[in-house]
Amino acid sequence: MTGSGEEDALKRTKGELRRQALQRRGVAYAKHGAEAGRALARHGTPLVLGLSGRLVSAYLPIRDELDVLPLLSRLIAGGRTIGLPVIVAREQPLVFGCWRPGEPLDAKPFGLSEPAPTVPAMLPDILLVPLAAFDATGARLGYGGGYYDRTLALYRSKRAVIAIGIAYDEQETAHLPRGPHDEPLDIILTPSGSRDHRS
């Protein structure tokens, strides 16, 4: 099989795994409701506050993504600064703008909201990363744009950062294939607890 053929096969496999995982996420969202976000905050607050680094990037949940807002409120109360992702351009790493609940955001396509360009940028020490699926090794399947893979690769080439994948337990997949540009997660955080994949 040619390199291009292998890449196409990997893309198809990931697409099917993503579809299945997002179906399970939708079921989990309907089943657990707001309690999932509260449980995530209970487990995630001591985890994140116990890590070195005060700058934490996060995301605002859309559709049936797990709600991280209860966790973010606790982290802010614990003295952490929160940043939200900004898409600069396709094929580029993300940047992060500082944000606190209640501050205005710019509406973007696909239901996304981003800090305005005038908001101070931050370089997070800890990244809370959304995902479609994860496996027991810390592999992450994203949404197909590669933004977090590029961002983590850039950050990790310069300094130590910690990537924490945020997901429902139901988003776990038996095995995720990895391509050459797929960046692993250091920790998985779900409503039932956390799994540390740092060696």
Descriptive terms for the model:
single chain; alpha/beta; eight-stranded mixed β-sheet; two-stranded antiparallel ribbon; 4 helices; 12 strands; 21% strand
Average pLDDT value? 95
Uncertain spans, ≥5 residues at pLDDT below 50?
Answer: none
Largest sheet data: 8 strands, mixed
Sheet/helix structural class = alpha/beta
C-alpha Rg, in Å?
A: 16 Å
Question: What is the CA–CA distance across the termini?
Answer: 34 Å
Q: How many separate helices?
A: 4
Strand content: 15-25%
In total, the number of strands is 12
Give the SSE order as H and E letters: HHEHEEEEEEEEHEEE
Shape: globular
| Arrangement of strands in the largest sheet | 6-3-2-1-7-10-11-12
Helix content: 25-40%
Summary, kept brief:
By secondary structure, this protein is α/β, with parallel strands linked by helices. It has helices at 3-32, 34-49, 69-77, 147-156, and strands spanning 55-57, 81-86, 95-99, 106-107, 113-114, 121-122, 126-130, 133-134, 140-141, 162-166, 187-190, 193-196.
